[in-house]
Design brief:
By secondary structure, the protein is α/β, with parallel strands linked by helices. The strands form two sheets. A three-stranded parallel β-sheet has the order 4-1-5, sandwiched between helices. A two-stranded antiparallel sheet has the order 2-3. β2 and β3 form a beta hairpin. The longest helix is centred in the C-terminal third of the chain and has 16 residues. It starts with 6 loop residues before the first strand and ends in a 12-residue tail after the last strand.
Length: 121
Amino acid sequence: MYNNKVVLCIIPARGGSKGLPGKNIKKLLGKPLIAYSIEQARHSKYIDRVIVSTDSKAIADISKQYSAEAPFMRPKKYAEDNSSIFDVLLHAMDWLEKKENYFFDILVLLHVTAPLRHVKD
């Protein structure tokens, strides 16, 4: 929570990487790549909830092992090479509002492919 505002973090991670298949769960220094973003979000003193938006059961399972939520599977139309990140985020927010009646004030987007950021960032 930040200034009495609920902070949601969404980490988009699709399973269909063509350049490096399975990149989001490939090991980097002994951990799946996605684990770094999840851990950074979990260690933030501001973020209340960490959601992974994915179309992959393997990514969802690994995300849960690192204490993130993956409460839905992203539809295929939002997991294509040309899918808009805005559509991915809108899908996640819509799902949370309609299925869980969950509302937030601030959205944080963390990309899996930026593992070298620091939690203070």
